[in-house]
Structures are given as structure tokens and as C-alpha cells.
Design goal:
This protein is of the alpha+beta class and about 140 residues long. The chain has a single domain (about 1-10, about 15-30, about 40-135), classed as Roll (Nuclear Transport Factor 2, Chain: A), CATH 3.10.450. About 40% of the residues lie in helices and about 30% in strands. The chain has helices at about 1-10, 20-30, 45-55, 65-85, and strands spanning about 90-100, 105-110, 115-125, 130-135. The chain has a 4-stranded antiparallel β-sheet, sandwiched between helices. The chain is globular and about 35 Å long. Mean pLDDT is about 80; it is low at about 1-35.
């Protein structure tokens, strides 16, 4: 629980728009691929499900931990219109990962019909999203 709290505190921009520098730094430092193998992310499917649910105005308790669920309910009115404007997700590209307070933070580029965004996601040991954040790119 201490790790989840630390991740949420570090990612106070849960569902909020983070400064471009914070996203760029996380994406730049997250790449851990060797030259012989492309990096593979594990949390793209859950990220996509959460984004699609948010676009419908939903905060799915089966995907989100309690802290993120509370943040989602507080911010969904601002998040939903932005996601609707982006359109359907067409592709996710894994950018890399890094450890954050003992938990993996994965960075993804989400391609939509009308633009792209970089997203960061932290999934806790319970399999639920402990934190996620975005910035328009």
C-alpha cells in the first residue's frame, strides 16, 4: 500500500494533464531495450480498456484501484470530452518502462483517429491501475 501511495503522490497528475517536460522525461528515461530485442509492455490492454471506458464517461472499478477510481470520478467530466474528440484508438506503441517506487511505470503512445497522446500507467500487485496520466503530443 505504501508503494501505491507513493506512486499516486508522485503522479499527482493522475488523469490530469501533466507538464510536457514530465512526460518527455518519463518517456526518455523509460526505454530499457537492449539493441537485440524490442521492448515489450504488459499493460497496454488494460490502458486501452480504461481509456475507452473514460471516453464513455465510465470509471471502471474492475480496472482501477481506489485512489485512481476516486480521481477518475472527480475528473471524468473534463477527461471524457477530450477523449471523444480524439476518436477511436487505432494503435498503441510501447515506449518503455522504468521502476517507480518498486512498481513498473509503462509509457505508451496512444494513436487515435484524430491525434496521439503519451500515457503513463502503473498497475499495482492487485492487477488494478494504481496511476495513469497523459499529455497531448
Amino acid at each position: 500500500m505504501k508503494n501505491v501511495t507513493a506512486v499516486l503522490q508522485l503522479s499527482l497528475c493522475v488523469f490530469a494533464f501533466c507538464p510536457a517536460g514530465a512526460i518527455a522525461q518519463a518517456a526518455a528515461t523509460s526505454s530499457s531495450a537492449s539493441s537485440s530485442a524490442a521492448p515489450v509492455g504488459q499493460d497496454g490492454a488494460i490502458l486501452q480498456k480504461a481509456i475507452e471506458a473514460n471516453a464513455r464517461g465510465e470509471c471502471p472499478a474492475d480496472l482501477m484501484g481506489p485512489g485512481l477510481l476516486d480521481a477518475c470520478h472527480q475528473q471524468i467530466a473534463a477527461i471524457q470530452p477530450m477523449l471523444i474528440a480524439k476518436g477511436k484508438i487505432t494503435k498503441l506503441d510501447f515506449l518503455g518502462s522504468q521502476q517507480m517506487q518498486g512498481m513498473p511505470l509503462e509509457m505508451w503512445r496512444v494513436n487515435y483517429e484524430h491525434g496521439t497522446q503519451n500515457w503513463g500507467i502503473v498497475v499495482g500487485p492487485d492487477g488494478k491501475i494504481a496511476g495513469m496520466f497523459t499529455h497531448d503530443s
